[in-house]
Amino acid sequence: MVAILKRGVTDSQIESLCKWFKSKGLDTHISKGHYQTIIGLIGDTSKIDTDLLEGLEIIESATRVSEPFKSANRKFHPEDTRIEIAEGVAIGGGAFSLIAGPCSVENEEQILSVAKSVKYAGASVLRGGAFKPRTSPYDFQGLREEGIELLLAAKRKTGLPIVTEIMDASHLEFFENVDLIQVGARNMQNFELLKELGHTKKPILLKRGLANTLKELLMSAEYIMAGGNENVILCERGVRTFETYTRNTLDLAAVPMLKELSHLPVVVDPSHATGRARLVHPMALAAAAAGADGIMIEVHNDPANALCDGAQSLTPKQFEKTAAAVFAVRDAIKM
Q: pLDDT tens-digit profile of 180-212?
């Protein structure tokens, strides 16, 4: 349930109302916008009479929310959320970021080279896998803690904040200096991991699962937010369909749909969606045109010899071209 307050309501009146809600066993989520204040009620609201609420002097209207996701719901928070990744770098609420880097951190020379090139091309966040979930146990599993240390070294050299994937809650100690923690598609419904991330204040990049609905993605975001961490960024990275010419099928309709349902920022990953480097450029432009708050692209200085996902990785020169085109599309849709 959401209660929209009348203009001119004082902080003391809001505090008094929230205390009354809490006495009824409800948690409250206050969203103050430019023109109105909304109180979202979380819990069993069946005993709350909407007519009673609307009869209160300070309440404009009260509406029941039918969707099971509450904190992520736009009805609770009408304005777009802006999430600060690092000083001067944000996603959402009008802020756009390009996230780029290799699928896996392989060595110091590789990650430093890629970091410098993507920063030059306009990326504001460096991605790189340290802990790698792989389908085969015989494939490269990542450098683990050493990979994070190499990412941090690249951060010190370039100033780019970093994002890397977490696979298990027991690894959280290694992510203390990571700016943005990624939850991969395979872990989207790892609810124990999501609960632990809810107790942190780190921004979380939550990827949609291989065969999950948008509602399920938002419910996974709800797990994190219910723990107290509201810094969640949603990521569309393609879903598995019957199509075989691409690695996955990129669901670009998810971008405007998620924005209609939720206030959280939405990022698109065309690299994992297509699995083919030549398709990344047009899909990145389409994602920008669809209104994505960020785009995440895999870039490798030597894709042919990459230890992981070389077929979908752009070279630095290709990324430079794609980044320029993405920014041009962004400028065009603002007109």
A: 999 999 999 999 999 999 999 999 999 999 999
Q: What is the model's pLDDT at position 47?
A: 75
pTM higher than the cut 0.70: yes
- Helices (H), strands (E): how many in the chain? 10, 14
Q: Comparing C-alpha atoms, which of 240, 242, 183, 184 is closest to residue 213? A: 240
DSSP state of 322: H
Which stretches of 9-87 are assigned E, i.e. beta strand? 27-32, 37-42, 59-63, 83-86
The total number of residues written for the chain in this structure = 335
248 in Cβ contact with 273 (< 8 Å): yes
| Dihedral sign for Cα atoms in the order 137, 143, 148, 152 | negative
Partnered with residue 29 across adjacent β-strands are: 40
Confirm if 327 and 295 have CB atoms less than 8 A apart: no
Tell me the two tokens of residue 51: 């007519």
- Give every CB contact of residue 167 below 8 A, 6+ residues apart in sequence: 131, 133, 184, 187
Rounded-to-integer distance, Cα 84 and Cα 169, Å? 23
The pair of three-digit structure tokens given for residue 80, joined into one six-digit string: 């777009």
Asked if residue 4 lies in contact with residue 50, where contact means CB atoms within 8 angstroms, the answer is: no
- Supply the DSSP string of 300-313, one letter for each residue: -S-GGG-SS-GGGP
* C-alpha to C-alpha distance for 309 and 142, rounded to whole angstroms: 12
